[in-house]
From TrEMBL:
This is Uncharacterized protein. It comes from Amycolatopsis australiensis. It comes from the Bacteria. The lineage of its organism: Bacteria, Bacillati, Actinomycetota, Actinomycetes, Pseudonocardiales.
Length: 83
């Protein structure tokens, strides 16, 4: 879930927009009903403009580490004591 309990979408920039190494899965807060923003902003701060990305139905390829870190619950890491 996104900020204020909103839903998050998984998106990845399309082929040709960026090189393959930058085609990571970003987490983007889903805009409210009826809202059509001029750009979407991933949790990591990446701006994504209309037609640049594809919405995914699950993880495809590498996740954006910065988006994952921003979506993690606050407090000690879940794997802090994993050894």
């Amino acid at each position: 879930m996104g900020e204020n309990g909103g839903m998050l979408a998984l998106v990845r920039l399309r082929r040709g927009v960026v090189g393959e190494s930058r085609r990571v899965c970003h987490l983007i807060p889903v805009p409210g009903a009826g809202a059509v923003p001029s750009r979407l902003t991933a949790l990591c701060g990446e701006s994504i403009f209309p037609g640049e990305a594809e919405v995914l139905d699950g993880l495809r390829g590498m996740p954006c580490h910065a988006c994952l870190m921003e979506s993690a619950p606050p407090g000690p890491g879940l794997l802090a004591d994993a050894g």
